[in-house]
Amino acid sequence: MMLVSMISYIDRNTLALLAPTILDVTHLNNFQLNLAISAFSIAYTIGNPIWGRILDRIGLRRGMAAAVALWTLASAAHSFVYGLRTLSIFRAVLGFGEGATFPGGLRTVVQTLAPGQRARGIAIAYSGGSLGALITPLIITPVNRWWGWRGAFLFTGGVGLAWLVMWVFLSRRSDLAKHVPPEATIAPAPQWRDKRLWAFLSAYALGAFPSAYVLYQSSIYLRQVFGKSQDELGAVLWIPPLGWEIGYFFWGWVTDRFCSAGASVPAMRRQFLFLMIASLPLALVPRAGSFEMTLAMLFFAMFITSGFIIGAVAYVTSYYSTGHSGLIAGLGAGSWSAVVALVMPGVGRLFDLHMHQAAFALATAFPIMGFAAWWTLNRDRPA
């Protein structure tokens, strides 16, 4: 599951990394690029709960094979992009397929690990996303140099195919092949009227929004402000996702150790308050003054973001049935993607106007709103 989430982020971040080159070749602007990102995000929003239901119903083995096969084809198809329409279509198919990533990861965690290990298990499974974002510049930059940006997307398709071959053998394990449908469980399923579900969605979708902002806009920002070339960007854009990767394991340990794997509301309240405060420096990135300081601040922003994701998922899985874990993960990642779909076109317009201060301030506001909503919805839950 770590590998599959890694591959999903290699697929989606190849576009973010190569955006300066692709914009030059296709004559698109940043607003149009973010429309394509929104197409991905809308499809991802829809796909997450659908794949969550599918995985809960038919199991991991068949469900994950179908999802990865679909998005592998979509990723390779990006090599045939010639304008906004084809880019948006391929991004949408990619987003729908990748909607299985985190539902599959969370379902594997709850299906194979004891409750006291699950926050760390979530960290391992979900950290593949940050690992994929981290290694994308290191892998795709030389591939782009040798075979061009179209060849880079064919390469990502090949990586997905390699995972499918591995999955055929790995998924024969008894703890993966075993499937318990939701009807066989007795613990409750998520209900829309439940404040805990909305608290989870708020912390996840709003608190984690800066991860999408940094991933999708870093290359554009560093190109506009510091004039870095595509190769120079490829040499450093692994640094912000490294903070994300480290953060997953750090916050997984913190949540298991001090927050009773998310079940202690007072401890989670303190953790989310700290995360909200620590998110504020993101607004000051345009005032950093140097390339190195900018990278350090983006690194820190990603480190903090992973705490919202781990904390939110640990919090919600302490209440609901493990038989519905795919749906829970789908709702979380889908809500995050919905926020991304709504906000990123506006961010793109701000970048086209070089209004970087406003864009970073906007991104920083979301963790504040996420904490406020989570705190409000948990005011009557002392434990």
Please characterize this protein's 3D structure.
It is a single chain. The protein has 383 residues and is mostly helical. The protein has one domain: Growth Hormone, Chain: A (Up-down Bundle), CATH 1.20.1250. It has helices spanning 2-17, 19-26, 30-58, 60-77, 84-98, 101-112, 118-170, 174-177, 195-207, 209-226, 230-236, 239-258, 265-279, 291-317, 325-352, 356-377. Helix 4 packs antiparallel against helix 5 (84-98), helix 10 packs parallel to helix 15 and helix 12 (239-258) packs parallel to helix 14 (291-317). It starts with a helix and ends in a 6-residue tail after the last helix.
Short description:
With 383 residues, the protein is mainly α. It has a single domain (2-177, 192-377), classed as Up-down Bundle (Growth Hormone, Chain: A). It has helices at 2-17, 19-26, 30-58, 60-77, 84-98, 101-112, 118-170, 174-177, 195-207, 209-226, 230-236, 239-258, 265-279, 291-317, 325-352, 356-377.
From the 3D coordinates, which CATH architecture would you assign? Up-down Bundle
Radius of gyration: 20 Å
How far apart the termini lie comes to: 32 Å
**Total domains:** 1
| Structural class by helix and strand composition | mainly alpha
Q: What oligomeric assembly is this protein in?
A: single chain
CATH superfamily: MFS general substrate transporter like domains
DSSP helical segment count: 16
Indicate the percent of residues in helices: over 70%
**What is the averaged pLDDT score?**
88
Shape: globular
Biggest sheet architecture? none
Element order: H for helix, E for strand? HHHHHHHHHHHHHHHH
Count all strands and give the number. 0
Percentage beta strand: under 5%
- CATH topology tier name: Growth Hormone, Chain: A
